[in-house]
Design goal:
- This protein is an alpha/beta fold.
- The chain folds into two domains: 269 residues, Glycogen Phosphorylase B (Rossmann fold, 3-Layer(aba) Sandwich); 179 residues, Glycogen Phosphorylase B (Rossmann fold, 3-Layer(aba) Sandwich), CATH 3.40.50.2000.
- 36% of the residues lie in helices and 19% in strands.
- The protein contains 17 helices and 18 strands.
- The strands form three sheets. The chain has a nine-stranded mixed sheet with strand order 3-4-5-2-1-6-7-11-12, sandwiched between helices.
- Helix 5 packs across helix 6 and helix 10 packs across helix 15.
- The longest helix has 16 residues.
- It binds adenosine-5'-diphosphate (ADP) and alpha-D-glucopyranose.
- The site of adenosine-5'-diphosphate (ADP) has 17 residues, from helix 1, strand 14 and helix 12.
- Alpha-D-glucopyranose binds next to helix 1.
Length: 480
């Protein structure tokens, strides 16, 4: 079975969030069970650089619809992912992707003005590689798209009359790729598809809606989120379409890369520990306190949080209970970057509690591992969370998670057994969960039992890969 997996980010090449972790690990897990899964990704400068030694030219396009009326040229390169060796097609189109900022925004956090064209280009090429006129010898049996950046691929493929099955995975329905309808022509979309039965979304054009409408099957990254998005508010305007397609919608829980996230052999740590030999975790905590300038205190319950600083992640709730945590003798270590107003509120919190609260505003892979390893408790009060990976990393690293009962958080953390789950996203409900955690933390044997139970949970990708395999098989047999 040959699968083309299209994505706008993939770890370890380029990452802004969990989509990259999934795109790095799932194709590799699929290959392990005998599926020939290959990636397609834009050739951002960092990607070209990291793959430089293995890039091979495999095709050239000279007539892709680009910005403005002029067609643009692009090269398609083939390389291997570092580590796993997954074959990866890289779309080298400097006009679209050679930018100095991130994959979607410039260094000031402003969306690129031509994101519609940049990601339509990715969609067009995906559809070409999946279609009958592909320039490659390798022909996929199925096209697997991820999030709005790839949403036009199923539309292009269907509109061109080609019919390999397509899967659209929603990692986050909050990002919908919405652009003005005047762009239809420029993006090579016929006027007829600008309708409710097509790419139209409340008078605009939505890349995600296109994917949800034209793909043969829709998946999302946890069973609970698959259910939640069929209603308001988490359907975010797409609930009508998702409900009407609920026979074609399923939730498959993400896994985690257990090699990358392994406290017994983690190159980012100066200590090692495991469920069988957890003692090294104390050393990680001490090192983390040193690194972050927190008071050296083995007994202070240390709360960690790593998140994009976006409304979704519930930072407001954390800010509301932070003083209470400090009053009860706790410490807090935050890592994240994103909305400037949230960053400013976090900085103010640190200024109020020097030596007790630390925040690194930025992106830091190594520190994210050290926070997971060194903290006792992990805060993840997301207002909504399609899957969430950090709570699974936390479980594995013995950092007991406190989570809001939503999406994948509900599906992965068991209240009182592996962590603390609260039902309503209010400061009061979070505070009650924090108090329960602190009370149990004081009872060392009970705490250890909770921690070790979480560390022993298996979230490896294998189970999810098998679920995708059976979905693909069903689609190819025309049975799903
Ligand atoms: P989302 O994809 O919504 O951001 P996930 O929990 O699925 O949430 O995945 C987030 C991923 O990004 C995790 O691997 C997390 O460790 C990482 N991450 C988020 N912010 C940072 C940061 N500032 N520095 C390092 N890693 C980060
Ligand atoms: C998104 C979601 C997150 C999920 C990740 C990977 O960014 O916000 O919950 O874990 O995608 O699927």
């Amino acid at each position: 079975m040959r699968i083309l997996f299209v994505t706008s980010e993939a770890a370890p090449l380029i990452k802004t969030g969990g989509l990259a972790d999934v795109s790095g690990a799932l194709p590799a897990a699929l290959r392990e069970i005998g599926i020939d899964c290959r990636l397609l990704i834009p050739g951002y400068p960092i990607v070209m650089q990291k793959l430089e030694s293995s890039l091979q030219l495999v095709a050239q396009f000279d007539n892709l619809a680009g910005a403005g009326a002029e067609p643009i040229a692009a090269r398609l390169m083939l390389a291997q992912m570092p580590g796993a060796g997954t074959p990866i097609y890289v779309l080298d189109a400097p006009l679209a992707y050679a930018r100095s900022g991130g994959p979607y925004q410039d260094s000031n956090g402003i969306d690129y003005y031509d994101n519609a064209q940049r990601f339509a280009l990715l969609g067009q090429v995906a559809a070409r590689l999946a279609g009958a006129d592909s320039p490659l010898d390798w022909h996929p049996d199925l096209l697997h798209c991820n999030d709005w950046q790839t949403g036009l691929a199923p539309a292009y493929l269907r509109l061109a009359g080609n019919a390999i099955p397509t899967v659209m995975t929603v990692h986050n329905l909050a990002y919908q790729g919405i652009f003005p309808p005047v762009m239809l022509g420029e993006l090579n979309l016929p006027l007829k598809c600008f309708s409710v039965e097509g790419v139209e979304y409340y008078g605009n054009l939505s890349f995600l809606k296109a994917g949800l409408y034209y793909a043969n099957h829709i998946t999302t990254v946890s069973p609970t989120y698959a259910h939640e998005i069929q209603q308001a508010p988490l359907g975010m305007g797409m609930q009508g379409l998702l409900t009407s397609r609920n026979q074609d919608l399923s939730g498959i829980l993400n896994g985690i890369d257990v090699n990358e996230w392994n406290p017994a052999a983690d190159p980012h740590l100066e200590c090692e520990f495991s469920a069988r030999a957890p003692a090294g975790k104390k050393h990680c905590k001490q090192k983390l306190q040193e690194e972050l300038g927190l008071q050296p205190n083995a007994d202070a319950p240390l709360f960690g949080m790593i998140a994009r600083m976006a409304h979704q992640k519930g930072l407001d709730l954390v800010l509301a209970v932070a003083d209470g945590i400090i009053d009860r003798g706790g410490q807090i270590a935050l890592l994240g970057t994103g909305e400037k107003s949230i960053e400013a509120a976090v900085r103010a919190l640190v200024a109020r509690h020097p030596g007790r609260v630390s925040a690194l505003i930025g992106y830091n892979e190594g520190l994210s591992h050290r926070i997971e390893a060194g903290s006792d408790i992990f805060l993840m009060p997301s207002l909504f969370e399609p899957c969430g990976l950090n709570q699974m990393y936390s479980l594995r690293y013995g950092s007991v998670p406190i989570v809001h009962a939503t999406g994948g958080l509900r599906d992965t953390v068991e209240d009182g057994v592996t962590g603390f789950v609260f039902e309503h996203p209010t400061p009061h409900a979070l505070w009650l969960a924090v108090e329960r955690a602190l009370d149990l933390y004081a009872l060392k044997p009970a705490w250890k039992k909770l921690m070790i139970t979480g560390m022993n949970r298996d979230f490896s990708w294998q189970k999810s890969a098998l679920a995708y395999q059976s979905l693909y098989q069903g689609l190819l047999a025309g049975q799903v």
